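Notes from the pairing session

We agreed to fold both candidates in a single pass and log them together. This is the raw record for the first candidate, unedited. Please don't reformat it; downstream parsing expects exactly this layout.

Candidate A
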Amino acid sequence: MSCDFLALAQPGVQKLSPYVPGKPVDELARELGLDPAGIIKLASNENPLGPSPRVLEAVRRELSELTRYPDGNGFELKQKLAQRCGVRPEQVTLGNGSNDVLDLVARAYLAPGLNAVFSEHAFAVYPIATQAVGAQGKVVPARDYGHDLEAMLAAIDAQTRVVFIANPNNPTGTWFGPQALADFLARVPEQVLVVLDEAYIEYASGDELPNGLDYLARYPNLLVSRTFSKAYGLAALRVGYGLSSPQVADVLNRVRQPFNVNSLALAAACAALDDSDYLAESRRINDAGMRQLEEGFRALGLKWIPSKGNFIAVDFGRDAAPINQALLAAGVIVRPVAGYGMPTFLRVSIGTEAENARFLEVLGQVLARG
């Protein structure tokens, strides 16, 4: 090929590396000749409960309409979300997963010469979306693996248009409380859009974490992004949403792709919102699994970062790559996070009781071999 199409790409795109997701079960089975039925995947923060029966029934009803385009405005889902979240439908932006909403923000508000502020060890989509549109990413050093909100405020300058903050944060599981968020929002310049990524908020309980929705009416420069992929168990269908002022939502809808959320996802999300029992069971399994893994790590003499998500980052105090490879060889998939600046850690999604036990058993064997 005589033409270098990489050189023709936008400068920000040229420097990007493709996002690397958690390794699929079938891929590991092919690579190592393992039986897929014997592999457990604790790498992608997926819900181990399986889909809600209500969701499955809603998807079945929708199958006969696959020749039709979905409702491009997502009317029914927007109505349900507006009622559930205490906002107006025109404040809702639907996305192909919450990643899509983050990308819409970057496309709408960032450009060469402008910048976005985000934390070290924060979700990989923030720098990817920022760099892809040619904007500068200002990475603020973390404090104890979490967001240093004071330092993030100090990093805002005249060219800052977006600040991405995650609560809880992925992959560290760290979080900040209501007062910290209130103080932060009160001091962010009004022309800077604050994107509060609450992908894991449903796993929180009590007043440990602020509810971003409580601040929307007071701060027109706030957007809260959420997803159905985690606690609601719809990762394969890719449906998320952003809640913001009507003006911000209008801007995002100007760059949103038509029909970005498919019919099955729309139907499934509507059904998921009605299944409170499923959500409660998801939380129960997650709480029990978190305790199980913490107790296992303690018994193995390991340290970890306390987490409010459906995952936990465990520290081995040395390069975790060989440990990860040994786990893979035994049919256990977890997530290396060296790319997040955490080479001694592995991130482990909360699984079923049996999956957690299998992981801890194999991990103990790997560590015993040195």
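Candidate B (folded immediately after A)
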Amino acid sequence: MKFSYVMLPDYPLEESLRSIQLADELGYYAVYAADETWHKDLWLLFAAAADKTENVRFGPSVSGVVLREPTLIAQAAATLDELTNGRAEVVIGSGNFGLLAQYKIDWSDTKPLSRVLEGAKVIRTFLDDGAITMDGEFFNYAGLFTFARPVQERMPVKIGAMRGPKSFEASAEFSDGCHHALSYTREAYEYMVEHCRIGAERAGKNVEDLDLGAWVVFSVGEDSAAAKEAARSMVGLYASAMPPEQLRRNGVEPDELAPVIAALGAGDLGGAIDLTPPALAERLSIAGTPEECAEKIKREIEPAGINHMILAITDAALVKALMGREVAGVPDVDTQLRLVHDRVMPSFA
């Protein structure tokens, strides 16, 4: 089982750089970041971290191909690959639908899965060949070329997916792996892996050779209640992006979340947290002591065949920045990275 840290780049940059260096020192597989206008730019941040690290990998999880043109994703990733001497990778998706709405883009008109698959083809071609000519449904090029070339012989290009089943199957068939966000039950991950296996077999691949990632809301600390409260403060914000089918695979009926989503939509962030029952928050996060977190991963996620935990670490500073709420007793990101390394990772060695 690989462990990675996925950050929202909302901290002071010096703090983020120190956390990236720590993740590298502790042996994390990768540091990912959300590629969204709401946050600081991940490409610039990771470029600044390149010569401060030795082994940790970098990339977006995810970069949306509606807002960011796929050849520009490939150009940035190839440049980062050279800076890091072969440690970059890309995870793409259609993008955050809430963010698209703020650009006055109706996601339902974007044909999201078809666009993502064509975007993956564009990125793969541009990375491998350095040039592309293509007449596609969404992207068209006539002899476009770049001097941005990756160091790796084959840079991994993966797809982020949530709803399924087609997105899971396509991720395995047409990319190097699937990062599945915001699921927490064995049922949800068995469903994902079952459909990834179908896609892998269509392409003549072994599903176990793919990067099968669980992207989860995560908070860990010695004070279990404090860690769970930090996660509860963020669950509604994340869960509002979960489609009904995915909620049900996680043991949640959409009606349970409706009041939370309504409060978020009205801009009442504090009310959204208050309307998130602790039991619901526990279903839609991994939080508590290191032992509690390890036990949930072992019970709900690892048995399905997931080989990569991607931890969206939540601390008091992030809750304050995004939700405007103070949460006491929650370790900072660096302390949580150490706790995971010392007391969670050994259970999966």
